[in-house]
């Protein structure tokens, strides 16, 4: 029931809302201003980075990292003049290793996120280890200040039925936690549009629920998928 071109993941974690998070960390007189923002594409991530580069045009370094996609297939980072491997890679690691479940510490599925750390040099060199810690801590601090949502892949479906059955069936599906997207009324029949989590168990569950509610007289036709925040 899952199309071959779709992602392996059926759910992942994103920053909720469209407002970026900003925090400040001071290390040996150097100021590290951390930012994290939700992004939908590599182009959007780079545009966000450039907007901060213009905002902090007098900063010594504007380092960045971003992760995009349900399968986190796009991962990029930049040291922006810092010694190689001391800024961008640690920031990227902080993003991909960020724990996103309070119940399971092994869940690290954050994506569609861009981190930018702006550094104003304070005159004291931190060394490679100190830079890694500072850029990591700045990214983690910004993430800890953020709010998150679960992004789920839903499978759309439609059920054709007599007009007289639409209201009753819609109520039964809603009572069983099936997302009802609306009902279209045509001249000969009504079409109930639904969506359920795109997993075999949920799809079969919806099919069985419909069979029970209609005594096997109605069928569910599955369509495409869409990602929604829940």
Quick take:
With 230 residues, this protein is of the alpha+beta class. The protein has helices spanning 42-55, 88-96, 127-144, 163-175, 200-213; strands at residues 11-15, 21-27, 30-38, 61-68, 74-78, 113-120, 148-161, 179-185, 190-197, 221-229.
Molecular structure report:
The model is unreliable at 1-5 (pLDDT under 50). The chain has helices at 42-55, 88-96, 127-144, 163-175, 200-213, and strands at residues 11-15, 21-27, 30-38, 61-68, 74-78, 113-120, 148-161, 179-185, 190-197, 221-229. It is of the alpha+beta class. The protein is 30% helix and 35% strand.
Protein traits:
230 residues; alpha+beta; five-stranded antiparallel beta sheet; 35% strand; disordered N terminus
Number of helices: 5
Classify the helix fraction into a percent range.
25-40%
Beta-strand proportion: 25-35%
Order of helices and strands: EEEHEEHEHEHEEHE
User: How many strands?
Assistant: 10
Spatial shape: elongated
Rg is: 23 Å
Alpha-carbon distance between the two ends:
22 Å
Please tell me the overall pLDDT: 93
> Mind describing the biggest β-sheet?
5 strands, antiparallel
Low-confidence stretches: 1-5
What is the multimeric organization of the chains shown?
single chain
Structural class: alpha+beta
């Amino acid at each position: 029931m899952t199309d071959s071109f779709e992602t392996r993941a059926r759910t992942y974690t994103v920053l909720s809302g469209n407002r970026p998070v900003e925090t400040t960390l001071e290390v040996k007189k150097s100021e590290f201003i951390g930012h994290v923002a939700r992004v939908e594409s590599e182009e959007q991530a780079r545009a966000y980075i450039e907007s901060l580069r213009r905002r902090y045009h007098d900063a010594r370094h504007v380092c960045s990292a971003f992760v995009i996609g349900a399968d986190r297939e796009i991962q990029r980072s930049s040291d922006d003049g810092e010694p190689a491997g001391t800024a961008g890679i640690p920031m990227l690691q902080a993003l991909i290793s960020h724990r996103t479940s309070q119940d399971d510490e092994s869940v690290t599925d954050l994506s569609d996120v861009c981190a930018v750390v702006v550094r104003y040099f304070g005159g004291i060199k931190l060394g490679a280890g100190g830079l890694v810690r500072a850029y990591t801590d700045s990214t983690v601090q910004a993430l800890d200040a953020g709010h998150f949502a679960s992004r789920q892949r839903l499978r759309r479906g439609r059920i054709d039925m007599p007009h007289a059955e639409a209201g009753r069936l819609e109520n039964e599906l809603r009572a069983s936690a099936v997302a009802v997207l609306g009902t279209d009324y045509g001249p000969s029949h009504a079409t109930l549009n639904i969506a359920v989590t795109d997993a075999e168990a949920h799809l079969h569950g919806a099919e069985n629920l419909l069979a029970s509610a209609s005594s096997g007289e109605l069928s569910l036709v599955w369509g495409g998928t869409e990602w929604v925040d829940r």
